[in-house]
Prior knowledge:
Blueprint: E1 3-5, E2 14-17, E3 20-30, E4 38-45, E5 51-57, E6 61-63, E7 67-77, E8 81-86, E9 89-97, H1 98-105, E10 113-119, E11 122-127, E12 131-138, E13 152-157, E14 162-166, E15 174-178, E16 183-189
Antiparallel strand pairs: 1-6, 2-3, 3-4, 4-5, 7-8, 7-10, 8-9, 10-11, 12-13, 12-15, 13-14, 15-16
Amino acid sequence: MAVLSYNEILPKTIxxxxxxxxxxxxxxxxxxxxxxxxxxxxxxxxxxxxVLEISFHSNETVTEAEIDRMQATYLYSNQKxxxxxxxxxxxxxxxxxxxxxxDQVQWLTQNSVVEVLxxxxxxxxxxxxxxxxxxxxxxxxxxxxxxxSGGTKLAVLSTGAKVNVPLFINxxxxxxxxxxxxxxxxxxxxx
Length: 191
């Protein structure tokens, strides 16, 4: 385990905080007048999903969490859980509460391969690609002259996710979507 000083606690780092793994969402180092510097961070607890705001002072250190990674296949989601299976061992199935992984699962089709982060051999969360390609299931027709709203319309993708797309996108097109922002990136294939 690496020991990190207060100024090494940066976004996307996973640290041990109060005995649990926490992902650093943001950090800001500042100094108020003649005081010592402080790193003000936002941490997401990877067990509970709660977000904490913690300040680390210049004399504090934390340990980096030992996170392992494994490949898994997305199986399905119901109202309460999303189920996955280890890629090379389909009998090893596990689930996450739907609320904790909903932001990522909405971009996954059945049998999509994802990266699962594990802590002490227990699955904690999933990491998905930054961009995914999905088929447009429903896109209302473009109305001529309807560009007052910026020239976009709401389309439903094959996973059920809804995205604002340009007016030229039609049902059956395949589009690339940025999973971090949830925004349309480009059309990959025309129907």
